[in-house]
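Query structure, 127 tokens:
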């Protein structure tokens, strides 16, 4: 299952760009900010980049740019990448990669519905 990319949208939901990973996000932020900086700044101020980074499992980067006040600051953090602690491995998940020590956040992570017909199990009613 492939992760949903980040779409840069403007006022009328016109897609101005797309990114599939943090590096592409920084590149698109730079490109789009040349002709429509308000679009990039709006996504930054509304927390859209932070939410998407959590969704793709980049929790460290999400926390790092959550306080960014400028496009340049956010791009700089994204280009530096997610620093990993020595000995920390990434594991493959259905939704992509994430750090082995991170716990599920419920932000876009894939969950198996095998055997449940795609529905949540219900508790039996008390009589």
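Result returned for the query:
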């Amino acid at each position: 299952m492939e992760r949903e990319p980040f779409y840069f949208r403007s006022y009328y939901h016109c897609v101005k760009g797309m990114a599939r990973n943090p590096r592409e996000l920084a590149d698109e932020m730079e490109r789009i900010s040349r002709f429509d900086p308000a679009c990039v700044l709006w996504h930054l101020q509304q927390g859209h980049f932070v939410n998407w980074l959590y969704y793709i499992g980049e929790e460290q980067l999400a926390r790092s740019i959550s306080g960014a006040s400028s496009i340049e600051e956010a791009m700089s953090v994204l280009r530096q990448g997610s620093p990993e602690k020595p000995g920390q491995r990434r594991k493959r998940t259905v939704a992509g990669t994430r750090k082995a020590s991170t716990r599920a956040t419920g932000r876009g992570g894939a969950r198996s519905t095998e055997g449940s017909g795609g529905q949540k199990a219900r508790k039996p009613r008390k009589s």
